[in-house]
Every structure is written in structure tokens, then in C-alpha cells.
Amino acid sequence: MKHIHLNTSFLSLEKADLSSEERNLLDRALAACDKAYAPYSGFQVGVAILLDNGQIIEGANQENAAYPMCICAEPVALSRAKVQFPEAKILWMAIRVKNEAKPALEPAAPCGSCRQIISEYEGRQKARIGLLLQGQEGLVYKFDEIAPLLPLSFSRKFL
Ligand code: THU
Description:
binds tetrahydrodeoxyuridine
């Protein structure tokens, strides 16, 4: 028998510790929250993706009266980026959240499905996607890739 330990680590930073490019991407993600259609949860998620061609692509969650049909902000932004610029690589994704019920003062990590989707896009482009997470204000969590958020991920290698 073998005990296998999976360690996860990431950086927790003040916004002032980030580069101006990173701060700009986080600002764009917060602005994208206003494009969310979230009348049911009141929880707005905004994403801004930086591509290696310099373009920034936004996404926001799109809810539905049939609740399971709600689409998260991450796949909205990733699909838009890949369809608009199929050859470009995704360098960074900033994800911000706003909550009508109470101020979101800490980052909200992407849900399990979104982690799997981000992992697939990393596999497609054969390069890591960095993540910057922040609430409406407060600390920023920085990940260089999806792996720390999705250890032992399922991928095409099993098929
Ligand atoms: N949501 C996202 O957009 N991304 C996530 O990773 C988690 C949840 C959205 C879905 C729904 O519209 C609202 O947040 C509340 O779950």
C-alpha cells in the first residue's frame, strides 16, 4: 500500500503586488460582471481572457429559468476566444465575482465543471493557462495553471 499526497499551493496577493497588465485584466473581468444575466442567483461572474495576440475576450454567466441550463462565465469566455481567434493561445484568465446579496470580499474559485473545461483548453493548446481570481475587492489568488485546482484530472489520455 502507498499513501499518495497531493499538494496544492498558490499565491495570495494584494492587488498592488500585480503587474499593470494583470491589474488591467482583473478590471476588465469586474466590468464583465455587469454583462452577466443572473436574475435568479444575483451572483454575477465576469471573466477576461488575455490571448497571446494581445486581444482581451470577456465572458459572463448566462442564467435560465430552467436552472440546470445556466451557463457559467468561464465557458462563455473560452468559447468566444477560441471561435473568434482559433489560432491564438490563452495566456491568462481573470475571474471576478459580484454578489447582490452580500459583497464578495474573497475570490470564488471556478466550479468543478469549469475546472474540467479549462483543463481541456490547456490540453488543446498544449500550454498552461494562468488564473487570477478576485471578488469585488480584496486579495487576489494567482495560479500558473489549472492543475492545483484540479488534481488527478480526467483527460484524453484515458480514452
Ligand atoms: N457560476 C459561474 O459563472 N462560474 C462558476 O465557476 C461558478 C458559478 C455562475 C453560475 C450561476 O449563474 C451563478 O454563478 C450561481 O451559481
